[in-house]
Write a structure and sequence with these properties.
Layout lengths: L4 E9 L5 E4 L1 H11 L5 E6 L5 E6 L5 H12 L16 H9 L3 E7 L2 E2 L6 E6 L6 E10 L2
Antiparallel strand pairs: 1-8, 2-7, 3-5, 3-8, 4-7, 5-6
Length: about 140
């Protein structure tokens, strides 16, 4: 594989509760090896129909606020056509329309270019799937 493109899959245990899982340290660790001081792009992708990637502040209540907002927008009730799994699971399949399953971020000098309070997060509202894969891919600039 060319050193211009490097990819790795993370296995994340999200458990049986809805959660916002901070991936920032995992991204930084990956970039310390893959970017090796270079500029480029980091793509984060979750290959699941019921999870997404968000760039938000964590630790100050914003992660809980995001889950609360998703409950308001996408209630876990019986209105959904998609009905297998736990009650209200159909909403989990609509989640990626609101929290996309990917993000692409700039990498400068081998480091992730995030704002002071920004974190890269996996958003998982699906209590039926306690394990997630997240693919990190670095594409070096020319």
């Amino acid at each position: 594989m060319s050193d211009a493109f490097t990819t790795r899959v993370l296995n994340i245990a999200t458990g049986s509760n809805e959660r916002v899982f901070d991936l920032t340290r995992d991204c930084e660790s990956f970039l310390s090896e893959a970017a090796a001081g270079r500029d480029g792009l980091l793509n984060i992708f979750v290959p699941h129909a019921t999870a997404g990637i968000a760039i938000i502040e964590t630790g100050a209540g914003s992660d809980d606020d995001l889950l609360a907002a998703l409950h308001t927008l996408l209630p876990a009730d019986d209105r959904w056509q998609h009905r297998h799994g736990s009650p209200g699971h159909g909403r989990d399949h609509v989640l990626p329309a609101f929290v996309p399953p990917h993000a692409t971020l700039p990498v400068v000098g081998g480091g992730l270019e995030l704002g002071t309070w920004q974190s890269v997060c996996l958003v998982d509202t699906n209590r039926d799937n306690p394990r997630r894969k997240v693919r990190l891919s670095f594409l070096a600039g020319s």
